[in-house]
Amino acid sequence: MTQTASDQKSGPASGAPVDGPSPVADRPGSQLRELRLEGVTRAYGAHTALQPLDLTLRGGEFVALLGPSGCGKTTALNCLAGLLPLTGGQITLDGQRIDTLPPEKRGFGMVFQNYALFPHLSVRANVAFGLKMRKVGKAETERRVDEVLRLVRLGEHARKHPGQLSGGQQQRVAIARAIVLEPPLVLMDEPLSNLDAALRLEMRTEIRRIHQQFGLTTLYVTHDQEEALSLADRLVVLHEGRVSQIGTPADLYEHPADPHVAAFMGYRNLFHLEVASADGDGVLARGRGMAMQGTPVADRRLVEGDRVVVAIRPEDVHLAQDGGRADVEAVAEIVEYHGRQFHVEALTREGDRIHFTTAASVRPHDTVSLTIPAERAMVFLQDPREAAA
User: Fold this and answer.
1) CATH superfamily of 5-17+24-261
2) Which pTM does this prediction carry?
């Protein structure tokens, strides 16, 4: 796949190797130098689930594949693991082609969302299982299992069975089983999706700690942007099988390349409007009872009549001051109390939903006048394919 302009914006983080030292590439204990996916494609008959994907992982990196269900992220992971054959492209590990090898010959560690533990085996036996299959000696197996159980803080639970453990503990057993093999790469497929909110938060910290202490290289699949932002060195956002953007969490959070990336980076409000005027100071977009000024994000200069998507984070939408300018008029429908702030979902006269946060008391059915700072609204040229739809 030829890199898109959005990939190029991210510079070295967009998947191409760069010269000079890297803060993650030289991390001690990393099992690989470089993993390359070049034009990796997967099709099912006439449907292409994964468009040509180019991505380079370096030793010690934590890379997250992020996107909604059906975007191609799990397909990409399964192609890398060898669970799905490629329709096109190739995968190389330190210069050696591996996409022609079966999964067991690739030597990767896998962590699934359903843990996939053996219920009749103890924690220690579960962790040691892969080493026994590889006929690793007893003394070496004991040493490595002890080391990994200590790392994941499960030493005192070694004799228990999975059914006696909490969900978070079971997930740590699954991680231990994957990393005890000292794999060149650990693949994690939505590993926290079955945990409750508190455990997910705790396990995010645990996964990052284990990744750093064991010198892992990790590819992590998730649909949760907060999870991806907190864990990854780089993010790969996919939409309908295509890469929307590759970059660091800060790159994507501050400079999303398109509305799909913006939506995953917290821009919950997406409005389809039309450019009324555009100049060096920004863009004025109108439509559906709204008038918003914003900052253009486009490969070409926007002109009057262009169809655009205006993206705004809820925290950047404010109640208008008495007598002040209002960009949007709406009626509050859902009001959630979040401690010091209310999270409000309101409905405009044209039926568009707008989300905002405020410290002021807002009640359902209240009419609200809202204002949006121009510097906080991002204006994207609408994809012609979506406009046609």
Assistant:
1) P-loop containing nucleotide triphosphate hydrolases (3.40.50.300)
2) 0.83
